Amino acid sequence: MLNLNSDKIDFVNKCENSLKDIFKEIDDMELINSKKVLDAFHKFNLNENDLNGTTGYGYNDIGRDKIESIFSDIFKAEDALVRREFACASHALSISLSALLRHGNVLLSITGLPYDTMHEVIGIKENNSSLISYGVKYEQIDLVNNDFDYEKVSKSLENVNLVYIQRSRGYSLRDSINIEKIEKVIKLIKDINKEIIIFVDNCYTEFVENKFPTEVGADIIVGSLIKNLGGGISTNGAYVAGKKDLIKLISERLYLPGEGKEVGPSINANRMFLMGLYLAPSVVASSLKSSILFSKVFEELGYLVNPKFNEKRSDIVEVIYLKNEENLINFCKTMQQSGPINSEVTPIPGDMPGYNNKIIMASPSFTTGSSIELSADAPLKDPYALFIQGGLSYSYAKLTLINILSNM
Ligand SMILES: *Cc1c(COP(=O)(O)O)cnc(C)c1O
Questions:
Q1: Whose CA is nearest to atom 6 of ligand 1?
Q2: Using the 8-state DSSP alphabet, how is residue 306 labeled?
Q3: pLDDT tens-digit series, residues 336-373
Q4: Nearest residue (CA) to ligand 1, atom 1
């Protein structure tokens, strides 16, 4: 049962009242994105039969092919793969990098150390199946003051085949990278060598801003369907979009050379991908409002937060510095208790494959690990930063927040 203290209700309502103008901007963005989705549905004459999938090899899967046209249209990309065979975005990132890089090629990350699951994929942490083990070379340029090191990037491009950009922060404490910065750095790189593949990990950023990296020169973008574009409906999967020839290479690595995109039965995925995409503009808007409310409330309570309620956002993630371990654990426990599923489960800090510190997580979700649903996680270490994201509906997030404050 939720424990909603009336003082806390008043306090949260007061904070919420000061957010009206910001929430209006989010509503405006939701409208723009909803129109993009609906226009694409109409352009490709989506009909009821498209919701049914194929079995077996998956030849002539009209619904699957329309979904990929719709995603491409929304991204303004030449082509896309939207597939249930991608277990998650990390898998899609891994397959895509393996498809695009050959022995002797150089992969340059210009947003510092990539997301944790990429360490063994690339070979930053040793692994016998890593890109490095297959002869790919890895180089890295760190961000400076939350922006690209443009000077250093421009001087480091010789021999580089693929530039890797990660927009959201992962478990680091930097800001997310907005579309203007992406546009600026891509222009810089393409002016020096237009052959370099610009590869963007787009996780958590979809429908937050009004443009996709593919509209400002990115060659490949990758994202998860248990995050923004799954709209809380998709139960797994990921997308990859971009240049047609590169999508062909990636499809031949995911499936097999010679068949590529032609195979891959959608089985029962078409309906969930379409309904998820349909709801995504609204769900992303709810997630953003939820993050902003958490940000405002915890700032008022004297905690450091990032981003602040009134800062421009390019992803749905909010970080709250909770000062100590006890706060972290209490916060996660109450968030778990406030959720729809597994509310009786008590989160305890534990070891996770691929992570160095013990991690505590609250994820009371319909889809395991789904982080477009309201969820939080934190490594148990100074500065006790908690990462919050998601919120299928703003009301549920607001109730969760009041419950957390009432139990703190
Ligand atoms: C979540 C995330 C991933 C991985 O996505 P999964 O679908 O969980 O595998 C990769 N990169 C970033 C920046 C992320 O936030």
A1: 89
A2: E
A3: 999 999 999 999 999 887 677 899 999 999 999 999 99
A4: 203
Element at 63 (helix H, strand E): helix 62-75
Measured CA to CA, the distance from residue 345 to residue 336 in angstroms comes to: 7
What is d(CA 398, CA 12) in angstroms, rounded to the nearest whole number? Answer: 8
**pLDDT of the residue at 352:** 81
Q: Is the CB of 170 under 6 A from ligand 1?
A: yes
Q: What is the DSSP letter of 13?
A: H
Residue 242 forms beta bridges with which residues? Answer: 79, 220
Residue linked to tokens 């997308």: 239
Q: Is the dihedral of CA 220, 200, 130, 148 positive or negative?
A: positive
User: What separation in Å is there between the alpha carbon of 388 and the centre of ligand 1?
Assistant: 14
DSSP calls for 169-223 = -TTSSSPPPPHHHHHHHHHHHHHH-TTSEEEEE-TTTTTTSS--GGGGT-SEEEE
Nearest by Cα to 202 from 44, 316, 41: 316
Q: Indicate if ligand 1 lies below 6 Å from the C-beta of 166.
A: yes
Identify residue 259 by its one-letter amino acid code: E
Query: Of all residues in the chain, what percent carry a pLDDT higher than 70?
Result: 100
From ligand 1's centre to the CA of 126, what distance in Å?
A: 20
Query: What whole-number distance in Å separates Cα of residue 53 and Cα of residue 51?
Result: 6
Q: Tens digit of pLDDT for each residue in 140-181?
A: 999 999 999 999 999 999 999 999 999 999 989 999 999 999
For ligand 1, is residue 176 a contact (CB within 6 Å)? Answer: no
Q: Under 8 Å CB-to-CB from 131, ≥6 apart: which residues?
A: 97, 98, 101, 107, 121, 122, 123, 138
pLDDT confidence of residue 357 = 83
Question: Does 273 contact ligand 1 (Cβ within 6 A)?
Answer: no
| Angle in degrees, CA 168, 30, 298, rounded to 5 | 55
